[in-house]
Amino acid sequence: MFGLIGKIRAHPGRREELVSVLLSGTGAMPGCLSYVIARDVADADALWVTEVWTEEAAHRASLSLPDVQAAIAKGRPLIAGFDSQTRTEPVGGAGLPG
Amino acid sequence: MFGLIGKIRAHPGRREELVSVLLSGTGAMPGCLSYVIARDVADADALWVTEVWTEEAAHRASLSLPDVQAAIAKGRPLIAGFDSQTRTEPVGGAGLPG
Predict the structure, then answer these.
(1) Which chain A residues touch B33 with a CB distance below 8 Å?
(2) Fold adopted by A2-87
(3) What is the ipTM, given to two decimal places?
(4) CB-CB under 8 Å, A93 with B26
(5) CA–CA distance from A86 to each of A7, A8, A13, A67, B48 (Å)?
(6) Where would a tag sit more exposed on chain A, N or C end, judged by fewer CB atoms within 10 A?
């Protein structure tokens, strides 16, 4: 499996708009096992996106999906920056299909 | 929903043991929607644990489950420290039940 854990910083006061945009982009994504959008409780402009994919190629392919491309275009002006982005190799746990 | 994103540092060379211990502790946990254990690709001793719970009380209650208590006892000597621990409020996405 392939994973990403990213902390995204919205422009001040724009986090909820960014949440809506990200939710709109996470429909049918082949190979996506988990994609969770979460507010940082202690940081009013920060969001965390944690992703699990069957393999890295599935994540790469998702970036060409129309819904994802639309979300990227709509989300970009709301994003001040990426505080961190980590590549992971998910091993298992609970709540993953299979 | 209630979430946690933690970066755990194993003692040098002990990460795979810690993975096994954590996997053994993630059986039936009421209120757990997702619990993913992942290796950091760029940091040989680091693991990420990303959790989504129905509510914080469910997470707290899980710490009393026998399997979880056993995993905590077995895992503690393998852990050098916690590089980061973030509380989140998951909003949605893909791969969550319901």
Answers:
(1) 95
(2) Alpha-Beta Plaits (3.30.70)
(3) 0.94
(4) yes
(5) 9, 12, 25, 24, 10
(6) C
